[in-house]
Amino acid sequence: MKLHTRRQKAECRMQNEKLQATSSKLQAIRRQPCVAVGARLACGLQLVACSFFILHSSAADWPSFRGNPQLTGVATDSLPENLELLWTFAAEDSIESTAAISDGVAYVGSLDGNLYAVDLQTGTQKWTYKASDEIKSSPSVYENAVYIGDEAGDFHCVSTQTGQQNWIFHADAGIISSATFVGNRVLFGSYDQFLYCLSTKDGTLLWKYETEGYVHGTPSIAGDTVVISGCDSYLRLINVNSGVQESQIDLGDYVAASAAIMNNRVYVGTFGNRVLSLDLATEQIRWQYEHPQRQFPFYASAAVTEDAVIVGGRDKMVHALNPETGEPLWTFPTRAKVDSSPVIVGTRVFFGTSGGVIYGLNIASGEVVWQFDTGSSIVASPSVGAGKLVIGSEDGALYCFAERKSSNE
Q1: Cβ atoms < 10 Å from Cβ of 224
Q2: Largest pairwise CA distance in the chain
Q3: Which helix (H) or strand (E) is 8 found in, with range?
Q4: What is the pLDDT of residues 53-98, one digit of tens each?
Q5: Residue 184's pLDDT is what?
């Protein structure tokens, strides 16, 4: 266990060093003004359609990193009021990957290089798939296949039924970004600075777009537009069919988080200690939030509803902001970093901390309504499906919480 802990800390340091090195490099580059290449009105019309686009999955599933292609981090399923530990599953190394839930199975990757399929009700292993290297990417499930990248730069498509490889695609650097889908296309980013678009059928490269930095986050979808942010400090809007950039917006800071989209607006935290809201129709920053005393990076992705933007920070706090103004609704001190992206379930929001505690807070007040101490740092984000909450920790444990029924039921 101690060996795993040292290794995990080293991996975290290496990842931060990569991002810090990129930031230093980017600061030496003179930025160009925000560039729009036209089609602003068309982009706005495409964005209207995004609310109707969903993955081919049931309402009880959590098929991808943030639950939907707009990456809002909002569960469509509910959870019982009193969550109890249903089961734990042990991987051979740390779990930084966020689980996907589909058709009664949880899929999760580990630094041991395995993709695990675990029965959601019992916690028993159904199959494992060996990737080429460590897995930090979160799996995405789409039409009877699970898609995941690894640190060797290999992107895998695996059958959900058998755990056998359907196809594999080789990028030129590690993949931490998770996959997003539009029709028969799968999109993901890589540390080789490219956004990739492949055919879901056979992994054929349809197009790739080169950015100016690592593409760490997961692409979000707005109609026919792919929205990505990354370590080049730009928010980019790229046509999903052609791979041509429609516009870019200078954020001023590099970004590890994934951008959440709601009502033509993007919400994302930066390594410049800010949370930003942008209007995609006008391509302007609407507001920016920075805590007045504690200036630390935001690594986690935001969860967004009509009433609140909730995001955890390396300032050891969780912040709830007004979506229209960016004014703070409340802050919650965690006494530990929050790299785990929060998930909203009804009137509660759930997330983990580097201190090993999983919290459930009341969205209206920020008060604790549930918590569980795992005893190990948590980087992964919660997944919610079929009335269960699933989350992994850095000691290799995958936890499932649900309403425990009596033995005679």
Answers
A1: 21
A2: 68
A3: helix 2-27
A4: 344 456 689 999 999 999 999 999 999 999 999 999 999 999 999 9
A5: 96
Tell me the mean pLDDT per 10 residues along the chain, length 409.
36 44 38 33 35 50 97 96 96 98 98 98 98 98 98 98 98 98 97 98 98 96 94 96 96 95 97 96 96 94 98 98 98 98 98 98 98 98 97 98 71
| CB 309, CB 267: distance < 8 Å | yes
CA 331 to chain centre: 22
What is the dihedral sign for C-alpha 107, 319, 402, 305?
negative
Q: How far apart are the C-alpha atoms of 42 and 239, rounded to whole Å? A: 11
Residue with tokens 């998930």: 343
Tell me if residue 7 falls in helix, strand or coil: helix
DSSP 68: S
The pTM assigned to this predicted structure is 0.87
Structure tokens at 369: 């309504």
What would the pLDDT profile of 5-25 be if each residue is shown by its tens digit? 334 334 444 444 444 444 343
User: What is the rounded distance in angstroms from the CA atom of residue 48 to the CA atom of residue 71?
Assistant: 16
Separation of alpha carbons 223 and 209, rounded Å: 18
Phi/psi for 318 (5° steps) reads -115, 135
Domains of the chain and CATH, by start? 2-26+33-402 (2.130.10.10)
Neighbours of 192 (CB within 10 A): 17
| Number of other CB atoms surrounding residue 261 within 10 Å | 25
Judged on CB neighbours under 10 Å (0-12, 13-18, 19+), 14 is: exposed
Q: How far is C-alpha 192 from the chain's CA centre?
A: 19
**Residue among 385, 377, 311, 298 nearest 342 (CA):** 311
Q: Say how far apart CA 325 and CA 187 lie, in whole Å.
A: 32
